[in-house]
Amino acid sequence: MMSESTESTQPAAPTPNRRNSPVRDAVTIGIFIALYIVLFFICGMTMGAIPLIMVLLPVIFGIFGGLIFMVLLGKVQRTGIFLITGLIIGLMMISMAPGGVMCYMTIAGGVVAEGIYWLMGHKSFASMTAAYTAFVTFFALGEYIPFVWMKANNPTLDVAKVGMDMLNPATMAMYCLLAIVACVAGCFWGRALTRRQFSRAGIV
Q1: What are the angstrom distances between the C-alpha of 40 and each of 3, 20, 59, 63, 98?
Q2: Between residues 14 and 126, the one the model is more confident about
Q3: For residue 25, what are the contacts with CB-CB under 8 A and spacing of at least 6?
Q4: What ranges make up the beta strands (E) of 11-86?
Q5: Cα separation of 37 and 149, whole Å?
């Protein structure tokens, strides 16, 4: 009789949390990185009609990419998200600038962002914002540097002409600053849309 009462008072074994399973998280990461790549391709396809989008690409990524990343990081707080994104996006751009500058700078941005995210903590909104801002800033530098210091003599593409006409060291710094502001705004936008999700994940 006593054994039965003892067994009945023992707490039930905890059920595994499916939301935190590595497979489930990997699928979620893959879906959101795919959305980020779709954003990249949409911007790329509209550059021919609106060449200015090329110059504003880091700003666009800052706002809308920040939204995508905040929703992702609200769901999954795992190491490697920024690094994987940097590698994929960087390798996609390996032939898009002289010497592969965009590729290498984007990958470097992924490495730096991953380091910031790890050092400042995965449960911190400040770390998410700082990491994403660093990622986009490196991407912006990789895009702008070829137009400022590696200019072609006879550019044939309209987007290249626009970049060379609009970018110099001063305007490059200005657009990088705009990208940083856009990243912060995009991250706050993402947190506002998923505030309940952030609260459940214990992100401060």
Answers
A1: 64, 29, 12, 13, 20
A2: 126
A3: 76, 78
A4: none
A5: 27
Helix (H, G, I), strand (E, B) or coil at 123: coil
**What token pair was written down for 144?**
């702008």
In tens, the pLDDT along 45-100 reads 887 678 788 889 999 999 999 999 999 998 888 889 999 999 999 998 887 777 78
Q: Compute the CA torsion angle 83, 77, 70, 66 (nearest 10 deg).
A: -10
**What's the predicted TM-score (pTM) here?**
0.82
Burial of 187 (0-12, 13-18, 19+ CB in 10 A): buried
Give the residue among 42, 82, 34, 33 at the shortest CA–CA distance from 60. Answer: 42
Rg of the chain over Cα atoms, rounded to whole angstroms, equals 21
**Which pLDDT belongs to residue 114?**
95
pLDDT score of 34 more than 70: yes
* DSSP per residue, 80-121: THHHHHHHHHHHHTTTSSGGGHHHHHHHHHHHHHHHHHHHH-
Residue 95 to residue 61: CA distance in whole angstroms: 20
Is the pLDDT score of 7 beyond 90?
no
Residue-level pLDDT at 59? 94
